[in-house]
């Protein structure tokens, strides 16, 4: 982006000052500014595992870019239950702590050009029934995912949708009926948070959105027959028992200044799933526990991936002047919540790629922090180079709006182009993969390429650098020590 050498307008200065302003969280930690690098699967490494050298390079670039908070991609608490073949995991091995410590050090290093290092959160997660054995190769294809119910995602109506659903999930999920298994899941989440603190991370974010396991427990569609869990106060709603035990466990086993965050859906956007009224009540209850420092608002599941398909929500926002995907929800919710530091900070992610929109959302308290995801894959220094750069005029401080070369062709070939019966998950995946490949480029020391054709990314970034070099060759190197 070319930078015009002109004096910034008063409006630009005011907006930059607001977005640059620090925010104190309930635990006393201070976020340097209001821009959050939202969680995204980095697409680096095959077969799961701790952070690799590519992660170090990628996170170092983000750390230099002026973000207030950096949230990692999924760190799965169970290495057999992955959301993608590239997910970070937390294996029980001494090298795990060392690798996550290195990544935290890469972000918190003292020679960074930015005045304040960003806070670093690990997104800890379990994909639940959405974990595909055939895509992720983390278990045998006949081994089921686990969930509160027996089901598989429905990616679309019609024979093409049926085909994709049965290829990705050959068997329905195995319902968890034993309380002991639920308590083991609680322990895995708590242990992950403890490891993150030992590794020098500033906190964790529980992924309780997008149809993952914690979200499935909250949803009446996937948890219709909720059973009580032990050691939960009687006034806690049944579907909040799992989150309560995890948050309580993290609170008891980490320091107060260790950030506790959660990502929740404002709606599942599927019939019978969590709706906005239910979500509002859940969030109000979570806030009443005084166990959280940050809440991020998102939406959708694999069946209706609103979080990855902004076009599917264009008509859902009654205020066209604010383009965030879920701002209509937060604008009505936040007046009933205490502002930080008396209550948790609210992150709004999706569609806020414009300095003016970001500032107006903060002024109107549609949010306290703004999450930016996909543009951060192309512009790792987005805050310092664009949004907070006084040399860039208000109308030019915009990112997003780019087209992915070859994406429409791939959507057509993969059955995602039909607006009625097209497979939304595949359409969202086409964009997600392309952005992951941009992160792979940064990870290996190459600049992102906004003009990269989708097929080139698939062949070069995925097949060669990740599958061949990151797969058999890397496995051979590991085998030989």
TrEMBL record:
Residue intervals of the NADH:flavin oxidoreductase/NADH oxidase N-terminal domain: 22-226
Q: Name one Pfam family in it.
A: Oxidored_FMN
Q: Which InterPro entries match?
A: Aldolase_TIM, NADH_flavin_oxidoreductase, OxRdtase_FMN_N
Select a single GO molecular function from the record's annotations and give it: oxidoreductase activity
| Keywords, comma-separated and alphabetical | Flavoprotein, FMN, Oxidoreductase
Family classification? Belongs to the NADH:flavin oxidoreductase/NADH oxidase family.
Q: What is this protein called?
A: NADH:flavin oxidoreductase/NADH oxidase
Instruction: State the organism of origin.
Output: Kwoniella bestiolae CBS 10118
